User: Fold this.
Amino acid sequence: MRSYIGRRLASAIPVVLVVAVVGFVLFRLTPGDPAALLAGDNATREQIERTRQYLGLDQPIHVQFGRYLSRLAHADFGQSIFLGRPVTTAILERLEPTISLAIAAEIFAIALAIPLGLLAALRANTWLDQAAMALALAGLSIPAFWLGLLLVFSFGVKLGWLPVGEFRPLRDGLGPFVRHMILPAISLGLIQMALTARMVRSSMLEVLREDYIRTAHAKGLSRRTIVLQHALRNALIPTITVVGLGFGALVSGAVVVETIFALPGLGRLTASALLNRDYPLIQAILMFVAMIFIVMNLLVDLAYAYLDPRLRIRY
Amino acid sequence: MSPSSTAPSRIAWLHVIVLGTVLMLGGAFPGLAAAQPRPGGTYEVAYDLSPFTLDAMADTISAKSHIVNNVQEALFAPDAGLVTRPMLVDKWTVSPDGLVWTFSLRKGVLFHNGETLKADDVVASLRRWLSRDGTWAPHLKSRLESLDRVDDSTVKMKLSKPFGAMLEALSMVEGVQPVIFPKSVLDRYPGEKDRVKEQDVIGTGPYKFVSWERDRRIVLERFDRYAARKEPLSGFAGNKTAYFDRVHHNFVPEAAGRVAGALTGRYDYAINLPLDQAAQIKTNPAVTVKINPYGGRSEFTFNSTIPPFDKKAMRQAVANVLEPEEMLAAIAPKGFYTLNSSPFFPNQSVWFSKIGYETYITRDLKKARELITSAGLTPPVSIAVISIPVAQPGGRQIQVAVQQLDESKLFKVDLQIMDWTVMVQKRWEKKHNAMYNAFNVWYQNDLVAPTWNNPQHPASGFLASKTRDDLLDRRLQTTSASDISQIRDDFHRWFWDEVPLFPFGNFATMDTVGQHVKGSQHIGGPIYFGVWFDGKK
Amino acid sequence: MRTSTPVSASATEPRDTVASRARLAGGRTRTRLARLWRSRYTIAGLGILTALIVLAVFADQIAPYGPNRMRPTERLQRPSATHLFGTDDLGRDILSRTVFGARLTLTIGAVVVPVSLLLGVPLGVAAGYYPRLDGPIMRIVDGLMAFPAVLFAITLMAALGPSVANVIIALSLAYAPSAARLARGSTLAVQAMVYVEAARALGARDRHLILRHVLPNIFAPLLVLASFTFAVSVLTEAILSFLGAGAPPSVASWGTMVAEGRNFIEVAPWLMFFPGGCIAIVVMGLNLLGDGLRDLLDPRLRGGFPGSGLS
Assistant:
């Protein structure tokens, strides 16, 4: 098992490096001049040139690349052009809001999806099922940014119940954290909720048809025990895959939700880094995201193996 | 009527009168007290964009200047009427031939680090400012023979030619600013590319820099040993005493966040709010709306290096097609914009003129067509216009302009939208025919300063013109008011003949302050000195 | 022609249990009726798609004004008789822009779907058919899929610049891996069938096998995938336009309209309400269509597409 994990992680490194190189080359070869932006739009040509030298962008590209690689070897990921600080610091600072948002959204999604999917499966083909699945379908179709705006409009502006546009970290208290997180979490989590609910329903239906369920019935176990202790556990296995892969949707959805709710997270940092051509930051973020995904995929596979003993032999 | 029955009633009336007077005065006193500034409190500000550096001479970003202007000072400063006043200078003299400028510094002015302002500091700061290639640098450098200290509080500049805009140049509150640092600080940043770190942003200003939490806020603290001038405060000049203990300059890039924070009282001062919400915000008693009618100007700038706008007739043709009111209406509701043909703002009394207004306001498609044919071209003429994304106000104005040009059937426009970072690169390539640009009043405090009068810069359309060069030269040679009026009129005549760019007009900006904030000025950019809480906060 | 062999790519293998066999054998009439009843959603989905096509094709006739007709003096008007959906801050009629937005939506979907299939399916079939290609191809595919489509598209758009063509390129590249995965899974399943082995033993050529056996069997799941890809590309294009990394502003796009409406949410909420609602309706319709097609073509696929990574 350990060697499997080790091998997976080791094979991740070339991927991350490729991402870094691609990120490096792609942006420097495309139009966009961060030096001019940094100098200000009323800057003279000489000022812009001076700023370019300050950033080291006046060097030929292979020199820049060489410098980049040598710094990378010392685990120095460079300085953000527009934030004026090391990119690692910039990323770490923005991590908390994004992770809080992602986890809150995921909790919302799962907390709603499992009961919903369960209910729909147990009352399959009744109006309850239809209603639950209609809800799921709506959740799947409503764009997160539109939902976010609607929530901002109704709860934030019109009703004024919930604050908009700020992030309160958990250490400032659970109350403020929840109040500031609720709308963004719902906006981001709804799609995930819908996908998961549908998945729970369909895999529950599959499981309930299984022979061992009929056996349990025959043994005289209560409906509740059957559902909760036997069926649900097995139904949740494929759900894990959806949850794990849905994490990707969460991260990309975070870009939009963070923009709308003005949360100072990684999503917004990415959007502004791309817009401003903050090369060192873009490269670092791309590598970081790639790494996260590889780890996420690994965790999903491992969780799968843990939950379904039949799969353990592969590892 | 017995004496005993009247006496009590008279005394009673006396009591009533005295009590009434006391109550009235008592009611008035707090009002009177409020008119007197009192120190104390933390000023919570909602500001929009983050600066990239706080080094006053490193870039031309407004967000940087807005902090610098509260923390550092230059030799001169503009007042609210845009007239230049002395700040760190006590007296100055110019030799009759205009070639020698002698500045006497005020005595007893302290820096935040405890050092006293001396001539060495001024010389070092001005030298650094000149080396940083701001808009004034080439003009002054080409004339400067020497810049030296005479004694601890006197600085002398010797020029080879007169420099009529000396005061304007030394009072810039935007762009590359000639603020005075301690020499001991600048010695630590000798390199041409060095940027002063924020902890070293040391000045003589009423507030001092405390900390910068990136993307969150900048914290300033009152400088208790600030040497204030005696004249009344006006703009950036006069008595700039700071009253707040601290200022929290928070970064809230979303307008909705600034509005919400202002209305809930989280912020005492919210800058640059959407004009469309003015009506709603005005009804809220918690805040006072402050409008600066001349917050900004935007324009349609040609590229005069390539056809078709290398020909004056073609530029004039566009001037006859564009209808500026629609452009302004695209970003501001009625009442929040001003039709103005001059590239200067109406409150720039020295440089503003109405010459050319007729051309600006008139839409004459027949004349435009004639001009196009006289230039040897056949309508519709194809042109490429570059612009920033439509989500930003300037992008919307350009869209309207493009529609006007297309609907006139005289032009066929290819509108290329690109991010700022691409646009600032592309406009130097000189492949576009026209582009969008915008300015505020502080950046163009004189005829020579603005990039739209610098033929090397895209903002001027790269228009080379001997007439204009002569006008700028004339301006630099003189300090006489009558000369300057003449130059102003000549310039405006030239401007509407050559039409290097088409100014859309002026639009307002809107701030709010809490009802307990007194003394705030809203002339463009946050001013934290001279502002106080009236005691009920 | 539907074969009775499984062609699903879902993670859970369908079980041939007593219960399901009994269900199939017994109430055939009930199954048919149930299918018809369930297909009412599919019909709704089809109806929405048709409406989209009609709006897109006949936009010029249906819309009362041009999509870019600016009248700044008429800005931010509430919905009224002259402007049924109101006007935006440049005085453009929102109803007209919404109708023309359908054109962009249809264009995106109609091009991204076939292009992503054309890119992905050959790769997937090759990977499934030739074991030596399987490793390298799937590593690339997995790598691409690891990256969320939106992030991938934003990065590409930031590099390429805003244009409809670039959006199409970005989205096609983003969704090709799903098609590849699906094609590979189906190919592997078909390959395992005995009659294919037999055919090969008899000397049938690869191309013949692929054309006559593999492709017809993956047609059904690909059709379902097409429907979902359409839905998700509509959503992603909206997100890209919302972030300013999508269609240029001269093109009416629902996502751009929501982004523009965002600035006026307090004074003019109708700006973002209508285009956003359209996105939701179209995506919902396409999802319904996809669900319905899947139910119709192979109920055992109801387990969802966890391996398709449509996120």
